[in-house]
Structures are given as structure tokens and as C-alpha cells.
Amino acid sequence: AVVSTQSTGKNSTFALKFKKEFPKRFIECFIAEQNMVGVSLGCAARHRTIPFCSTFATFFTRAMDQIRMAAVSQSSLNMAGSHCGVSIGEDGPSQMALEDIAAFRAVPNLVYFYPSDAVSACRAVELAANYKHLTFIRTSRPATSVIYENDEVFEIGKAKIVKQTDNDKVLVIGAGITLDSALKAHASLQGKGKNVRVMDPFTIKPLDKEAVLRHAMECGGNVVTVEDHYPEGGIGEAVASVLSNAKFTTNHKLLAVREIPRSGPPAVLLELFGISANKVEEAVFELLK
Q1: pLDDT at position 21 over 90
Q2: CA–CA gap between residue 169 and residue 288 (Å, rounded)
Q3: Does 139 score more than 80 pLDDT?
Q4: Tens of pLDDT along 44-55?
Q5: How far apart are CA 199 and CA 223, in angstroms?
Q6: 9 pLDDT exceeds 70?
Q7: Residue 247 pLDDT more than 90?
């Protein structure tokens, strides 16, 4: 049975909905993330239950020792981190997860899901529940468009191409809120006679290396990555690691949050910190000069 543990803001993470439906399978751990992860590990021991612990993604950093030892112990713990990046807006930088991709990519055997709409988020939860090691699901605060049909099949380590033509000049890779930026840029560029291909990686670890290389090559080696995360250890560096082994020339623009952010409306912050649709469009034009 699925068990939900929660440390902070169950109304914000919507864990409250699970509590209302299954009160006997909900454990309130209060503002003690290390405790929440420890309790969840106990629930996962000997595969007694399928635990999902949830809080704001940034607060999981408080429990990195427990998470590290969970990997050593080969636990099947599942973590859901919400409110990631500058796109949370007015809550401010203390609540913005901007280091989590880097931290969790370093955890052995962990699968890092980064769904971009409601359908892919649902599939991520399903896949996580059936995976035998650790998982982390990163979710954004703002509403995003549903881009997949309900019967779309997702796999761990398999990316999705959401926009494509036979004459694409740049591969744009975004996830979560920045996939939304990529799709808006795609629409604008199409109106200006520029074709770009848009990739949703779905899992950042493992990254679909074969798809990154194949589609980068088909787009002339031009790649833009855009992420609501600091540049160190994020999507861009994961993609750069793959491109470093390419047997063709590549040009890569890495868009990320490059300074400590501040509070403000989400759309304003995406623009201010360089990861909006406008910034994606600018990066594409720079590559095509």
C-alpha cells in the first residue's frame, strides 16, 4: 500500500488530498525533514509499503545525510519535491529549490523525474512506485498546459520530442516550467520562419543520451538547454556531458539561474533570471548567427 509522509505545507503540496482519502496511511512529520525521511525509510523497509514523502524540494537538502544512507541501504524510498525554482514567485529565494538536481544526480541508483504536465506527473508517480531504488519527482508551482494525451506511455530514461519538423536548426531542451518557455519560444520562432525542435527529457537521471545525441545531430549540433535551477550540476551540465562525447561539432547555450534570486511575480522572475521564452528565442538567434 502507498503511504504518504509530509513535513511542511501539506496544503501547498496537496498531500492534504491524500490525507482526506486515506487518513490511516498518512503520517504528519511536521517541520522535521530528516525525521520525515527516516520515518519513510522505516515504512519502506522489507518492502512493507510504498512510501512517498513530500515537501518543498528545497527542504530535502536538510535530509541529505538520511537520503545518502538510504541509497547505501538500497531503499525504495520515493520523494516528491514541489515549489522548485524561481517560478514559485513571491515566496522568495529561501523557498526556491535551485540546487536539488545537482544534489540528487549524485545519489547512486536514484531516478530523477522532472514531469512537465499533469499526465507526465501521474506517470512519474506510477513509475516511481514500481521502481526498486530511490526516486525523486520535481514539480513546479505554476499551472502548465497539458501537452500529453492520457494514454501517453512514459519510460524511465526515455525523452519525448514534443515539437519537430524535418528542417529544425536548433534542439531546445526544457523541463517543467522551462518546457513551457521552450514551447512558447517555438511558437514565436515558427512565426519568424525559424524551426526548432523541442525535447522534454522526463527523467534527468538517467538522461536519454541516445536521444540527445541523435536529435542534436539532426539539428546541426545546435542545442539550447533552459532550466529553473543554478547552472552547476543541472540539466545543462548533464546535456553538456553527453555532447562532450559527440562525434560531430556542437554549439550549446546553457540558460539557467545565475545569481541568487529574489521575490516577485513568476513571469517577471523567469525573464529577469534568463529562462523565459524571450531568452530562449534570443539564444536560438545567437546560435543561428
Answers
A1: no
A2: 8
A3: yes
A4: 998 889 999 999
A5: 10
A6: no
A7: yes
33: annotated active-site residue: yes
Residue of 196, 249, 194, 247 whose CA lies nearest to 225:
196
* Amino acid letter, residue 269: L
| 128 grid coordinates | 516511481
Residue the block writes with cell 496537496: 14
Residue type, 259: E
From the CB of residue 40, how many other CB atoms can be counted at a distance below 10 Å? 27
Instruction: Concatenate the DSSP letters of all residues of the chain into one string.
Output: -EEEEE-S-HHHHTHHHHHHH-GGGEEE--S-HHHHHHHHHHHHGGG--EEEEEEEGGGGGGGHHHHHHHHHTT---EEEEESBSGGGGGG-GGG-B-SHHHHHHTSTT-EEE---SHHHHHHHHHHHHT-SS-EEEE--SS-----S-TT----TT--EEEE--TT--EEEEE-THHHHHHHHHHHHHHHTT--EEEEE-SEEES--HHHHHHHHHHTTTEEEEE-SS-STTSHHHHHHHHHTT-SS--EEEEE---S------HHHHHHHTT-SHHHHHHHHHHHT-
Residues 256 and 233: beta-carbon distance below 8 Å = no
Q: Which of 21, 33, 152, 218 is catalytic?
A: 33
Long-range own/partner contacts, residues 42-46 (CB < 8 A, 24 or more apart): 43/3, 43/5, 44/75, 44/76, 44/77, 45/75
